[in-house]
């Protein structure tokens, strides 16, 4: 877990403010901050810079809400269904979650259960049986008041597009960790050898010994914090396709500085989720070049806010 004081975002923000003559005051263990320049003030919360409106930020956090806005705008997306903890049924005028949850699992055969407002891949579970579904939902409700359930989709590739203003400044693919068996060593041994000190989450039996030449994905998650790594997209045609859907998604929920996760499946491209806080912690730590790329994206966003 990254300590707030050690976040790359905070380090970059301090550097930018010093270089650009912006007064910066950080508080609450560096989770909140105040920016000031030429009599204008803006505030930072988590990874949120002051450009997005409060409403747009809250909508972007809501996975089920985002999917509904995107569907209404005609933007291809992964549907997410909202469920609320039973003690708060009155807010949604419902009397039960279970029948609708079971119907979704029956319809899709395999579903992903996650916090409706969570981030970073925490508390994300795969369910293929009613028992797994019940366990996953219980675990999420132990920590969150709302749950989102979506169909499990076989993803060919997942990309993150950073939207800033009216353009996309960065697109990178999230490459899941995989190994090739040698018929002798376990997945954990092969993973440790290939990825050295990287933190890998194994969604398979780490003691399994794959056959020689057998390729095995170590995780079905695409999160950089769970072992995946970033590869910047440079292909022109691919960049255009992702840019088009990312800008449409950002416009549909009213955010002007955000990261949009786009997946490619056999049916084409669709939006998985939107984050109004542009988090580049793991990306920026991978190399000096990626650090400078992240810094310039944040710099442009800060300066654009004060230029408005």
Number of strands: 14
Quaternary organisation: single chain
**What structural class do you assign from the helix and strand content?**
alpha+beta
Major sheet characteristics: 5 strands, antiparallel
Q: From the alpha carbons, calculate the radius of gyration and give it in angstroms.
A: 20 Å
Shape: globular
Order of helices and strands: HEEEHHEHEEHEEEEHEEHEEHH
- How widely separated are the two ends? 36 Å
Q: What is the typical, i.e. mean, pLDDT? A: 90
Strand order of the largest sheet: 12-9-8-13-14
Q: What percentage of the residues does DSSP assign to strands (E)?
A: 25-35%
Q: Stretches where pLDDT falls below 50 for ≥5 residues?
A: none
The helical percent reads: 25-40%
Number of helices: 9
Question: Can you describe what's shown?
Answer:
- With about 300 residues, the chain is of the alpha+beta class.
- It is about 35% helix and about 25% strand.
- The chain has a five-stranded antiparallel β-sheet with strand order 12-9-8-13-14. Strands 4-7-5-6 form a four-stranded antiparallel β-sheet, sandwiched between helices. The chain has a three-stranded antiparallel β-sheet with strand order 1-2-3, with helices on one face.
- Strand 2 and strand 3 form a beta hairpin.
- The chain is globular, with a radius of gyration of 20 Å.
Secondary-structure map:
Blueprint: H1 8-20, E1 23-27, E2 32-37, E3 40-45, H2 54-61, H3 63-72, E4 81-84, H4 98-108, E5 111-115, E6 125-127, H5 130-141, E7 146-151, E8 157-164, E9 167-175, E10 178-180, H6 187-195, E11 215-217, E12 229-232, H7 236-253, E13 257-265, E14 268-275, H8 281-285, H9 288-307
Antiparallel strand pairs: 1-2, 2-3, 4-7, 5-6, 5-7, 8-9, 8-13, 9-12, 10-11, 13-14
